Amino acid sequence: MQNVKSQQVPVEFEMARMEGEGGPPSTSFEASKAADRTRVNIRRLNQLRAGELAAATTYDAVITRLARHGVAGLKLLETLEDHRHRAARLAELVIHMGGTLQNEPGSWGFFENMAEPMAMTASETMAVALLKEGEEFGVREYTTALERLELPARAVLENELLPEQIRAHHEIDELLTTLREQPVRSFS
Fold first, then answer.
1. 157 Cβ partners below 8 Å, 6+ apart?
2. Which of 40, 86, 133, 159 is buried deepest, with most CB atoms within 10 A?
3. Could you give the C-alpha distances from 131 to 54, 62, 125, 138, 151, in angstroms and in order?
4. Distance CA 4, CA 10 (A)
5. Angstrom distance (rounded) from CA 29 to CA 174
6. Which residues fall within 8 angstroms of residue 19, CB to CB, at 6 or more apart?
7. Taking a C-beta distance cutoff of 8 angstroms, is the pair 48, 141 a contact?
């Protein structure tokens, strides 16, 4: 008979295996992993929140120039409020999970940086086209985050925030289609 040595399995692998099988009662290792996952979720939620705040700033810059343009201005005001609502909802999630709100530039930062100069010189249609690009970017950001977040944040994104973002994208797309059918106007 051949002498078989038992192999040592690292504790982390054994704990992960046991956790997947229902595992033993909570351990400090499991608690540490859970805390790490929570920190990652909070960071992702803060990134989405920063993107919503940057989107609101972008809309502010464009709306300031479009205020006298009736329906377009009203639709943009509604979408601005939607971004503010999502930023507030994300802030609630971060705080509920024990996190601290961060004020770093969001993923919309690129659009925010382009919006003010464009708002000064571009046509209404070009400015709304920029906003549409930002809304598409926002949908991709939420979709990517949804794939990586855990409950309860995942449920809020899936059932509330992503559908709102998709709706905002469709509304801005419809507004852009309407504007393209009208004669070109500049902001001046």
1. 48, 142, 145, 146, 149
2. 86
3. 12, 9, 10, 10, 30
4. 19
5. 51
6. 30
7. yes
Q: Structure tokens of 151?
A: 């409950």
Token look-up 């601290």 returns 100
Assigned token pair, 175: 């507004």
What is the residue type of 36?
D
- Residue 109 to residue 102: CA distance in whole angstroms: 15
Q: Residue written as tokens 């382009």? A: 114
H or E, element range at 66: helix 28-66
